[in-house]
């Protein structure tokens, strides 16, 4: 009797480790719950973000003021609608709120995905949330300190050589440009996280990523050409450099995931053999 029950216990343990099965409607209910929790977090973050926006406006306008001053142009931004500045203020607050709420949103995403993962994979929630937020903030920092100053210098110097034509930059258009650049680079820096999930579910492997490196460079070049707000090749290369570096980081992440999965399979095989 004892010998016949041991294999059943082993199988039950492996099924528990892999997470429980959910029906289609249970998945929908779980998705609805996670979306609602995320919206609550974004709403609370936006409320805080609107309050903090007044402290960030000067920080965001500093690059364009410096670029205009260096080009000996009128170092001011303008708005052409009575509600123009207010709209910018609220938009900035919402974006700040999304950034503040991102750890909660990412945690909700993880809770939705976790039932499909093994028990040891679900323990990586802290690393997932921290890594995702840090990479996104790193992309914003790279955009603000490296990409944005170069793009503004290029655009302003080009306009500054236009003879009697002088730029009158509106605050709304400038903020749209800044938010676009920072958001794109923030998302680009999430490439290792994307590769992590693709590797976790067995869609890609380190060998596959390395073998198709040339095609990845081509795709990166096309993406950089699309998202680059200026027509010059130097700006496109500035967008490409972190993407290529992050692709190699993704290969290392994929190799780490593959090694962990092999170790888990070997451990489970030894456990089954021992029983």
Give a short overview.
With 275 residues, the chain is mainly α. It contains ten helices and no strands. The protein folds into two domains: 166 residues, no CATH class; 85 residues, no CATH class.
Largest sheet: none
Distance between the termini: 14 Å
Identify the overall geometry.
flat
Strand coverage percent: under 5%
> How many structural domains are formed by the residues?
2
- Rg, Å, rounded: 24 Å
Reading the helices and strands in chain order gives: HHHHHHHHHH
* Helix count, DSSP H or I runs of 4 or more residues: 10
Residues in helix, %:
over 70%
Key words describing this protein structure:
single chain; 275 residues; mainly alpha
Give a written overview of the molecule.
- This protein has 275 residues and is mainly α.
- It has 2 domains: 24-189, no CATH class; 191-275, no CATH class.
- Helices cover 81% and strands 0% of the residues.
- The chain has helices at residues 2-17, 24-70, 84-113, 119-122, 125-160, 171-188, 191-200, 206-211, 213-227, 233-274.
- Helix 7 (191-200) runs parallel beside helix 10.
- The chain is flat and about 85 Å long.
- The relative contact order is 0.10.
- The model is unreliable at 1-19 (pLDDT under 50).
């Amino acid at each position: 009797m004892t010998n016949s029950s041991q294999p059943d216990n082993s199988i039950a343990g492996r099924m528990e480790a892999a997470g429980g099965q959910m029906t289609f409607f249970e998945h929908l209910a779980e998705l609805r719950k996670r979306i609602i929790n995320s919206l609550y977090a974004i709403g609370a973050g936006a409320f805080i973000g609107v309050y903090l926006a007044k402290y960030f406006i000067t920080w965001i306008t500093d690059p364009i003021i410096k670029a205009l001053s260096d080009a000996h142009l009128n170092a001011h931004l303008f708005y052409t609608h009575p509600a123009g500045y207010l709209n910018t203020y609220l938009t900035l607050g919402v974006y700040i709120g999304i950034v503040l709420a991102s750890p909660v949103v990412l945690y909700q995403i993880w809770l939705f995905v976790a039932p499909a993962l093994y028990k040891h994979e679900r323990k990586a929630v802290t690393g997932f949330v921290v890594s995702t937020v840090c990479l996104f903030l790193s992309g914003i920092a790279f955009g603000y300190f490296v990409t944005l100053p170069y793009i503004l210098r290029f655009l302003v110097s080009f306009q500054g050589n236009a003879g009697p034509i002088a730029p009158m930059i509106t605050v709304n258009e400038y903020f749209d440009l800044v938010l676009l650049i920072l958001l794109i680079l923030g998302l680009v820096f999430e490439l290792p996280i994307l590769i992590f999930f693709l590797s976790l579910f067995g869609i890609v492997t380190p060998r596959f990523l390395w073998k198709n490196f040339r095609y990845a460079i081509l795709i990166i070049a096309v993406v950089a050409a699309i998202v680059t707000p200026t027509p010059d090749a130097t700006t496109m290369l500035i967008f490409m450099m972190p993407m290529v570096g992050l692709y190699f980081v993704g290969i290392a992440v994929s190799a780490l995931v593959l090694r962990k999965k092999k170790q888990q399979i070997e451990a489970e095989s030894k456990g089954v053999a021992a029983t």
